[in-house]
Design a protein that fits this description.
Two copies of one chain form a homodimer.
Chain A: E1 5-13, E2 27-35, E3 43-52, H1 56-59, E4 80-90, E5 100-107, E6 111-115, E7 120-121, H2 139-150, E8 160-163, H3 169-180, E9 184-189, H4 192-200, E10 206-209, H5 216-223, E11 228-233, H6 237-244, E12 247-255, H7 276-280, E13 284-287, H8 297-309, E14 317-321, H9 326-332, E15 341-345
Parallel strand pairs in A: 8-9, 8-11, 9-10, 11-12, 12-13, 14-15
Antiparallel strand pairs in A: 1-2, 3-4, 3-6, 3-15, 4-5, 5-7
Pfam families (chains A, B): ADH_N_2 (PF16884), ADH_zinc_N (PF00107)
GO molecular function (chains A, B): 2-alkenal reductase [NAD(P)H] activity
InterPro entries (chains A, B): ADH-like_C, ADH_N_2, ER, GroES-like_sf, MDR_fam, NAD(P)-bd_dom_sf
């Protein structure tokens, strides 16, 4: 039997980047040949359709021994994230050629060989655009749902909710979920255009630009005259510290991400000095990783699909064409240029 | 009817102490006359028997507008805390002369007039020494119980528990509660004598002196080769930061107090730079005030009385005779000299 071979361009980690935004010194592209017949049992070959560009990927490239947050990619390892692919070869009888699947370790590559154990089939004609499985119905949607509906439960209508990095994928979904619960929602984001956008398109009651409102404490005094009941933190550092001066009794802080710290070693990060307020206001602050909530995926998906089909939640996905644009897209997460979810369309 | 008058020495707040340990410039004693017949309805006069010297009292004397942690005493207000008193005059038919009561706002004074709304009668011959109602069955006991059994639940046997200020009243009770749950318990405290004591008398598996073990991170590496599952924090600052480098997945941090910060304004406190670990390890960190758990007092008291009567928990109360010694006793909480609970015996 002759072996069928496909050529695939793939991104791999050439060097660790302990600090700063990764560059072409750290992430490189190479071309490999995959022999389709040579894959192990319980594996499939995917033709990559879409891969999600996630902020946490950056943390997997530091090479630091912190060991506490991010499992590190190995040097020369292909970089992967959640993605959607089409099965073109299968050594698992549950999957056949042509199946469309969600895979948590889809390579930033044209083709990839993956274990069939963590795949989930999707119906391409179910009325949901495929990239949405990486957005509202994917990791950022789940992160928003866990942060608002699981960690911060029970949510009372009228609660005052603050969300940082509010124009990020998680931010725009979380804000809308909190609005659907009857909350008042205010967000912070990095440009005036994004302030306008999240108010006009994504239902935020109010928002401010954290670059121009340099005194976060004063800003929060204005935007939260009645204090903050729920804070979904995507930023950490000085913003978290400012929030802790405005929390109400029994407030909940859902720690989703701390983008202010990702490009720094921990000893260089801004310390939070007012944690005593967690005691005075009896605050619950809880960090989470969506991977621990996959057992709740059914509940999440049912609720989100219903919101999506009823038009109660607006999604926002930026499709970047071409796997070669991964590095630039990753960098854009750490500037103020990004709105919503970024997905690379490979095929 | 002739008015009966008693003379009473009482401590009052003469000046706020924003930083440092309060001195005789801040807390002064004065003599007042109380006309017993002149008290309002639903009030009683107590002859003070015992009053509890609590670390949180210090926070009520800063006069700072933080507003988030401690309700401030007013200037010239009598300083009060949990205490045990004997009713000598009552304008509430539920209380008669001679009743022994626990009162959450017992003055550091020989006599005091208090509302009868928050009193609780105790049976003086129930086999429990009266000061124990301010120790194991009082605020420190409840603080230990909430921190270990409520915030950190469910506790698995074999969990690795770390307790700072381990020779404090809360620390010695909390350590023993954790041992009763089958945990391995390690504490930090301020002298070698206290290290020895908490291991030999209060059942700690191990302990270290945080003055001589200056590198907390290295110490925790040695004492917790398998990481920390539960941390009861009484200290905050650098110790909390070090702990967050050693937490296991789904660890719980019960924030009971942050004595490292009480004598400093918040902007001067040590910032915690590694909160990102709360996300990576999906830690729940929760602050609490015992006042919010009085609805659980029945469960708490039943469990603790049973432990006490069965000899499963050893208590440690230092009785200081004479109300005039309050200031010095308060100061001793902030040095390394103190072990267990300090109670002022007034009568």
């Amino acid at each position: 039997m002759s072996a069928t071979v496909v050529e695939s361009r793939e991104w791999y980690l050439a060097a660790y980047a302990p600090e700063g935004i990764p560059t072409s010194d750290h992430l490189k592209i190479r071309c490999v040949s995959l022999a389709l017949d040579a894959i192990p049992e319980q594996h499939v070959v995917l033709e990559t359709l879409f891969v999600s560009v996630e902020p946490y990927l950056r943390g997997r490239m530091t090479g630091l021994e912190e060991g506490l947050y991010f499992a590190q990619f190995n040097l020369n390892e292909v970089v992967s994230a959640f993605g959607v692919g089409r099965v073109i070869m299968s050594k698992d009888s549950d999957y056949g050629e042509g199946d469309i699947v969600i895979c948590p370790s889809t390579s930033f590559a044209e083709y990839c060989v993956v274990s069939s154990q963590n795949l989930r089939k999707v119906e391409p004609n179910a009325g949901i655009p495929l990239p949405e499985y990486l957005g509202l119905l994917g990791i950022p949607g789940l992160a928003a749902w866990v942060g608002i509906e699981v960690i911060a439960e029970p949510i009372k209508a009228g609660s005052n909710v603050f969300i940082s990095a509010a124009a990020s994928a998680v931010g725009i979904y979380a804000g809308q979920l909190a609005k659907l619960k009857g909350c008042r929602v205010v967000g912070s984001t990095g440009t005036d255009d994004k302030v306008k956008l999240i108010k006009e398109e994504f239902g935020y009651d109010d928002a401010f630009n954290y670059h121009t409102e340099k005194d976060y404490d004063a800003a929060l005094t204005r935007y939260f005259p009645n204090g903050i009941d729920i804070y979904l933190d995507n930023v950490g550092g000085k913003m978290l510290e400012a929030v802790l001066n405005h929390v109400n009794k029994h407030a909940k802080v859902s720690l989703c991400g701390m983008i202010s710290g990702y490009n720094k070693v921990w000893t260089e990060r801004e310390g939070v000095r007012n944690l005593l307020n967690l005691i005075g206001k009896q605050v619950k602050m809880q960090g989470y990783m969506v991977g621990s909530y996959f057992d709740r995926f059914g509940d999440f998906e049912k609720e989100m699909e219903s919101h999506l089909k009823e038009g109660k939640i607006v999604s926002k996905i930026k499709i970047v064409h071409g796997v070669e644009n991964f590095l630039e897209s990753l960098g854009s997460l750490f500037t103020s240029s990004n709105i919503g979810k970024i997905v690379i369309q490979v095929k």
